[in-house]
Prior knowledge:
Layout: H1 8-34, H2 38-57, H3 65-86, H4 91-116
Helix pairs in contact: 1-2, 1-3, 3-4
Amino acid sequence: MINKADLTHREDLSFAVMNLISLEEHFAMTAAKTNKEEYLHILHSVRKTRVQLLKKLVVNTEGELWCISKHLLAGTMRLMETATKYFESDIKAAHDFEKHAFDLYSLFWVLQNREAKK
């Protein structure tokens, strides 16, 4: 049984969703670079899974909240990946990217928790 006050399971799920969003991006780029339609079929399968899991995190979809939430997670993941590429050459830039990632991730949770309190 999951304790509703424990966000850990939701945080883990949010990172899984971030990775699925990244997979979608990679499959789209691989399909474009190779001109192979099979990658688009895999992308579609990954997207279906991502949508199912994101529904467990995003309760209120009024207006653009669904897309905003997805893009906040996507931006978080992309900034974290960018930060890792800077750790060897520019530690300050890496920390700045990590800070921006954390700010976006925090905003995602502000939106989700605001809706959960209603």
